[in-house]
């Protein structure tokens, strides 16, 4: 997880988002406004991490070779069985 750019940035942006969301609770906003205010500045870290998150190009577009390897038509042929 921590050996790729996507792994590191994924953890960083997830932690930033968790802190932002938890500090948005009404109890925190009213009682500890400074905590709410400063944790919401983590949006800068969140968006910088989001920009670099896809840098490793782990997920790629479909190509003819990848479609032959993974055989996506097998799922389409048995569409009626989805969800059973």
Automatic annotation (TrEMBL):
It is a multi-pass membrane protein. Its main location: membrane. It is found in: Membrane. It holds the Pfam family Ferric_reduct. InterPro entries: Cyt_b245_heavy_chain (IPR000778), Fe3_Rdtase_TM_dom (IPR013130), RBOH/FRE (IPR050369). Residues 63-84 are annotated as: Disordered. GO terms for cellular component: NADPH oxidase complex. Residues 7-50 form the Ferric oxidoreductase domain. One of its GO terms (biological process) is defense response. Residues 74-84 have a biased composition (Basic and acidic residues). Keywords: Electron transport, FAD, Flavoprotein, Ion transport, Membrane, NADP, Oxidoreductase, Transmembrane, Transmembrane helix, Transport. The chain crosses the membrane at residues 6-28, 35-55. GO terms for molecular function: superoxide-generating NAD(P)H oxidase activity. This is Cytochrome b-245, beta polypeptide (Chronic granulomatous disease). It comes from Nothobranchius pienaari. The lineage of its organism: Eukaryota, Metazoa, Chordata, Craniata, Vertebrata.
